[in-house]
Amino acid sequence: MQEEFQVGAVASVHGVRGEVKVFPTTDEPGKFKRLRTAILRTEKGQREVRLESAKFFKNMVIVKFEGIDSPEEAQKYRGATLWIPREQAVPLRRNEYYQADLIGLRVLTDEGEELGILTDVLETGANDVYEVTLPDKSKVLFPAIRDCILEVAPEKGIMTVHVMDGLLEATGL
Fold it and tell me: What is the pTM of this model?
């Protein structure tokens, strides 16, 4: 399971005080208001940063990091990603999972057959849809509903699914 989660990416400099515009990559951008520390990663390395402030503007978060006080200093972090450790992530409720923990799970059928690897989670209005890549590189989509998803066990590295009638025939299997 993943120990750190990306919560944003620095898009550009904002203003003259060293603030940056961060594009949030989290379902909970409001968390930036409560976030005190994070890890700022660039191609050259990473550093832990303290957040002095966070405010929202359109689809971005304007963030001020402690010790970055000029536009010139802030420009060095354009394109950097912002990460938090798992313990700072939004707590999960029962039967909820972080997407990062699902990607890469081996997908087994309820008959014990290895089907493929979960390669993407698609967010739709009604429910998520899990994309499973089969050994022949074709893809099958499973709705994240109880009738299809029988067990999710990130700690074991597996997900067990029920293949509904007609699902695999559409892929030629």
Answer: 0.72
